[in-house]
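Input sequence (335 aa), recorded before submission:
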Amino acid sequence: MDLLTQGLLGATMAQAGAKKDETRLAAGIGFFSGLLADADILIQSSNDPLLTIEFHRHFTHSIFFVPFGALIAALILWPFIRKRIAFKRLYIFALLGYCLSGVLDAFTSYGTHLFWPISEARVAFNAISVIDPVFTFILLIAMIIAFKKYTMTAARVGLLLAGIYMSFGLLQHHRAETIAETLANDRGHTIEQLLVKPTLANLVLWRSIYEVDGRLYVDAIRVGLFSEPKVYAGESIEKFVLERDMPELPTTSVLAADISRFTNFSAGLVGIQPEAPNILVDVRYSNLPITASPLWGIEMDRTQPDQHANYMLYRDASKETRQKFLTLLLGKEIS
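Predicted structure, token format:
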């Protein structure tokens, strides 16, 4: 998730395990430790644009890396606070702050190497958006109260409420997934692959992508709290298959390897839009949940197979896009 939420989760985890006179120091240690896993975003290469997305949420987010990540955090902080706390207590707070960083990210839709090196699979439970203000607010209030009142009880209550909210996200995901399956069945489609994920900053509006006969169908599903579910039929796009769509590309080329890396990152849900035949897009993400227009993709130069693909972002924060998203979120009819 976003850095603020990661830090707040780390802070409340550390506070929950602190003594009364340690809650403030524990909050700082936990906050820093909660952020440290995302330091993998600094792994970049000017010669390999895909290196960043390949290593973000990689080994630093693995549950097996937790003891080492906590140790790194403790060693960094030790010179600054060694007169205030024993190293053993420092490490315990760092461990508490770091331990759920990868797990939290795994509950989003981005994908996390949670069990590396045992498994290279990207785990994504699709229960919460990468930014969720409700979840963040719960942790923020709990951390502030625990900090001001010198009490670990507030932190523990906050963690409990955050867990309940995450469970609600899993329930909403199940509801949206069931609706997506029913929708496909009504269309006479037999789903080969299905992904249902929350849209930005809410657990009401969901994006559904499913594959049938080499085509990816995108729909928006609104699962309200006190209203009937609503489906907004979206677009479809042909799924990209390297051997069929670029048979001339050498399988040992740099570009072929980049396409494979990006396809793996995108859970296999990739396609090429007809108006942009040189752009391979991640169909999981879009500025609007009913379109196949990409949030990001890679630009491929078919004439230069031994050159890396370029990673491209296509964020659209226009007023029109924001209004359409709000219309869908509120369950209104779109024109």
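Checked by second reader. The mean pLDDT is 96.
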